[in-house]
Specification:
With 146 residues, this protein is an alpha/beta fold. It has two domains: 44 residues, no CATH class; 71 residues, Ribosomal Protein L15, Chain: K, domain 2, CATH 3.100.10.10. The chain contains three helices and six strands. The strands form two sheets. The protein has a three-stranded parallel beta sheet with strand order 1-3-5. A three-stranded parallel beta sheet has the order 2-4-6.
Amino acid sequence: MLTLSNLSPHPGAKKQKKRVGRGQGTGQGCNAGRGMKGYKSRSGSGIKVGFEGGQMPLQRRLPKRGFSNPFRKQYAIVNVQDLERFAAGTKVDRQMLLDAGLVSKKCALVKLLGNGEIKNALTVALDKVSDSARQKIEAAGGKVEA
């Protein structure tokens, strides 16, 4: 009967690691299978990623264009019509939009745009609010907190 206590790999499935540089009797003695002399026989050598034998590498031959700003702020966009699902008198903040599935976690900042209409009086506390969105919320009886 086959149990965990008597499992073993198939014959020939496990091979011992080749021990190079351990004498002539091993068949990998003397130069340890690295050949005689040259760059690749030395310790610490090896062709680096992208090395093209001295030819000008591809990443240096191609022209460089543009600029990526590391301090760029990325906003998740929410429209006024998306806020219609909340009840009147509700304070809408980032966490509430996250729970409703209107923004994802990766977007740290939220901006409200004025696309659509709103009838519920809401209190909105977001990072940025456009002028048209502010007017529509205030016209519906709500208010925008900075």
